[in-house]
Design a protein that fits this description.
alpha/beta, 20 helices, Rossmann fold, 25% strand, GMP Synthetase, Chain A, domain 3, 643 residues, 8-stranded mixed beta sheet
């Protein structure tokens, strides 16, 4: 591990950031972002109300700042407020660009919508929803690719107080029904297909079966992504998107003013260990959390162009859509991130002059291993910020970005999750970027690293990532969890009145954070807990190894570490390579990190948002069933792990 400073903003750049501007206006007694964070957690009501005012939230904030409660999850911020989430995303912001949305599809189709055009589409869609009986609290579901109509559906539902929920178009029938079957939507919006990797994937046959298995659905709205007028004969209660909206063109766009705790959308846990949990998010809490992360931590401002690679089945889709609330243009890409080549996302960042490029850590590490050098092949002159999330970004990945992508850029590694639809720790555009570190705690978030005994740990000590004080985007509830038993078990079972997030982490001496992997996937070697990310960082730097996954196997009355590696083409797992892998781990980690067994596999299972699934592999290795294969993008890969 190094303490290498890779980027340091100068005084002029610091002063020009929205975070520093907010600090000077909202809390002038704070000398820097660290002191601003201190104020935000000591006076949370004042902080969130100041953010409301500074960001120009539309609505009535009410008089009360905070409503305290005995239970962590029962706290309320701005409890008397009323607002509408969609209205705050669709209001005109001074300085915004000519387009609200730019869509680029893998097959070369481009579409744009100005804010006025987006408002008109949302108005027509909302009028249609009302015409078929959708009202506040009803669920509207989208089984959709990452296209404009998905966003229109969400904003239309939000405008009338309906609850939105989505999965990506690559989910199979069981995966869709496992999710939407629990939340009983009244309307289902779906596409006739999508493009990926140079191929077309038709969805209508699956849609017909899904519609039959969702008895709550009274209307199915079909978007023609492959054909302008797809044949809907096999889909019950189906109507073409244009046929539904055309009679409502020109309808007045109205926004229901709703309490801050009104449910906004339902997100789903990965479901790799059972039926997905249905996480209900509150509208004002998500709005405030996203504004704080986007405007302050990511320095997004009116006129910016935000390009985050995501799908409608990942919380970063919800996060990206919220960027409209900062007056930014959002750039959608539907397709394979490395098609027709590994430089595809960098091509699009240049094509549309993106100011923020958001990708997964796996994408950055993969680009590095592929030998890309965008600093030589691309301009990227407009890019101020590169965001990385999804898994820990390696030290080498940080260094590669500054060496081979862009030297003067804010690399904002961040970590959070579906549970809060946001981040716990994130970037800070006023601070130095150090290799391997997430820069800072999120504003308004009281973050600690706890020992097993619930004691706060100092720098260099690994433990559980927790939040010790309430925050606005805590889930409102889990769907069909009337006594909150599953809610409490998910976050508060480990430590009383403390949110345990499920990550294994440590602080650095500078106040940055390193995530060592999921705490439920940590390995125990000779009584010492080991984060899997520590092993991956070393192994995946080897040219021979494309990707790795490590698990703990019960063995001879103990637990041994087993490492599976996906090797580069034309590379075999020789004894020499095994010894090289073990030697690198021993030298760069510790003898306790060294796997007892190294085995080659042709593929590694991952969720549909790209995260590898140690727990599913652990179950297979022990001969136990994996409960929800539909949660995986490539469930067939599990067969390679039956030792």
């Amino acid at each position: 591990m190094t303490d290498q400073v890779l980027w340091q903003p100068d005084e002029l750049r610091v002063a020009s950031t929205r975070l520093d501007t907010f600090r000077r206006q909202a809390c002038p007694q704070a000398a820097n972002s660290g002191e601003l964070w201190q104020w935000s957690v000591q006076q949370p009501g004042e902080f969130w109300r100041s953010l409301w005012d500074w960001c120009g939230v539309v609505g009535d904030p009410g008089e009360s700042l905070v409503e305290e409660a005995a239970e962590f999850r029962d706290w309320r911020f701005l409890p008397d407020a009323s607002t509408n989430f969609a209205e705050n995303l669709l209001i005109e912001r001074t300085g915004a660009g000519p387009n609200a949305i730019i869509e680029w599809r893998e097959d070369g189709r481009e579409r744009t919508l100005s804010l006025a055009e987006l408002r008109a589409e949302v108005g027509a869609a909302a009028a249609w929803l009302r015409s078929v009986g959708v009202g506040p609290g009803d669920r509207v579901a989208a089984w959709m690719p990452h296209v404009i109509e998905t966003i229109v559906t969400f904003l239309a539902a939000s405008s009338i107080g309906a609850v939105f929920t989505s999965t990506s178009a690559d989910f199979g029938v069981d995966g869709v029904v496992d999710r939407f079957g629990q939340t009983t939507p009244k309307v289902l919006v779906a596409a006739d297909g999508y493009h990926y990797g140079g191929k077309e994937f038709a969805c209508l046959d699956r849609l017909g079966e899904i519609a039959l298995r969702l008895p709550s659905v009274t209307h199915v709205l079909v978007v023609g992504a492959l054909n302008d007028r797809p044949n809907l004969a096999g889909v019950a209660n189906a109507l073409h998107w244009q046929d539904a909206l055309d009679p409502h063109r020109g309808a007045e766009l109205r926004f229901a003013q709703l309490p801050g705790d009104h449910p906004l959308y339902i997100l789903y846990s990965s479901g790799t260990t059972g039926t997905p949990k249905c996480i209900v998010h509150r509208s004002l809490g998500v709005l405030l959390k996203h504004l704080s992360e986007q405007a302050l931590h990511c320095d997004i401002r009116p006129g910016d162009r935000v390009f985050y690679f995501t799908t409608a089945g990942w919380m970063m889709w919800n996060w990206l859509v919220s960027c409209l609330g900062s007056g930014a243009t959002i750039i959608l890409y539907d397709g394979n991130p490395v098609y027709p080549g590994p430089e595809a996302l960098f091509d699009l960042a240049d094509r549309y002059d993106a100011t923020l490029l958001g990708v997964s850590a796996k994408f950055l590490d993969g680009s590095m291993k592929a030998g890309l050098s965008p600093i030589q092949s691309h301009s990227l002159g407009s890019v101020r910020t590169i965001c990385s999330t999804g898994s820990p970004l390696s030290h080498e990945g940080f260094e590669w970005v500054y060496r081979e992508v862009k030297a003067d850029v804010h690399l904002a590694s961040m970590s959070g999750g579906t549970d809060l639809c946001g981040c716990l720790v994130a970037g800070d555009p006023t601070l130095a970027v150090v290799a391997g570190e997430i820069q800072a705690k999120c504003l308004g978030m009281e973050i600690e690293v706890f020992s097993d005994d619930g004691l706060a740990l100092g720098p260099g000590k690994k433990g559980e990532l927790v939040c010790t004080a309430p925050f606005p985007s805590m889930p409102l509830e889990f769907w069909n969890d009337p006594d909150d038993a599953r809610y409490r078990a998910a976050y508060f079972e480990r430590f009383d009145q403390v949110w345990a997030h499920g990550d294994y982490a440590s602080w650095t001496p500078r106040g940055g954070m390193i995530i060592h992997g999921r705490s439920d996937a940590t390995l125990n070697s000779a009584g010492v807990r080991i984060g899997t990310a520590e092993i991956y960082r070393v192994v995946e730097q080897l040219d021979q190894v494309v990707e790795a996954i490590a698990i703990g196997q019960e063995w001879d009355n103990d637990t041994r570490i087993v490492l599976f590696v996906r090797l580069a083409d034309d590379v075999g797992l020789t004894e020499e390579l095994v010894q090289l892998i073990r030697g690198e781990i021993r030298t760069k980690c510790s003898p306790r990190h060294v796997p007892a067994l190294v085995q080659a596999v042709p593929d590694i299972p991952r969720t549909r948002s790209g995260k590898i699934v140690e727990l599913a592999v652990t179950e297979v290795v022990h001969g136990r069933p994996v409960k929800n294969l539909e949660a995986l993008a490539n469930p067939e890969a599990l067969e390679f792990f039956r030792l």
